[in-house]
Structures are given as C-alpha cells and as structure tokens.
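Supplementary notes for students who missed Thursday's class. We covered one full example, reproduced here. Read the sequence, then the structure, then the short commentary at the end.
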Amino acid sequence: TCSAGFNSFTTIVSGIGSVRGIAVDGLNGWIYWTSSDQGTGARIERARLMGGDRQTLFVLPGFNPRQITIDPVEGKVYWTELELDAVARCNRERRYTFILKSHIFIPSVR
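Structure (token representation):
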C-alpha cells in the first residue's frame, strides 16, 4: 500500500538479496525478479502480487542475471546474463536456454 505522498508502503517480499531486475505479470498475478547475493548465489524468483507463494525458479551459481521481462501469454521469462553477454529464456517447465549470441550489448549498471 502506498499513500499519495509516497510516505508509506507495504513490503510484498523481503530477504531477497541484491535485486537486479523486476518484472510484473499482471495477467497472471506474479512479480518476478533477478537477484545476486554472495551468500545464496544468483536467482530468478517470483511471488504473488499480493505477497506470498514465493518460488525460486532457478539458482544460477556462477551466473549474474540482470534485467528480466515476461511474456505472460506464452508463459516465458527472459533475462539478461551479464557475465556471458547473453539473453536467457525459460518456459513453464522451468527449463532454460540461452537464446542470443554472446558479446551483445546489454546496458546494465555494474
């Protein structure tokens, strides 16, 4: 919940490490994010927009996921991979693959 003056808010999910990218799937009621944390490693996670039902889609040791976007109709999640200069995709079965060649320009704050 956020007031008109943006002085109050409600936390949907906490304890998620260093968030690098966020995407909202309003059609299906999910919020997705990428995070990197030296203690827990890189992750792609999601939770319900109203909070709860937090799910880890992937734990990605040795990777550095950044921006993320959703195709809610096709059920696909796309994210950029900083260390490999690549874009990855996963489907509803949580299988992922890199879909673009390495050495592409991915704008990101390092």
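Commentary. Strands lie at 18-25, 30-36, 42-48, 55-60, 65-71, 76-81, 86-90, 96-98. Residues 74 and 91 are 8 Å apart (CA to CA). If anything here is unclear, bring it to office hours.
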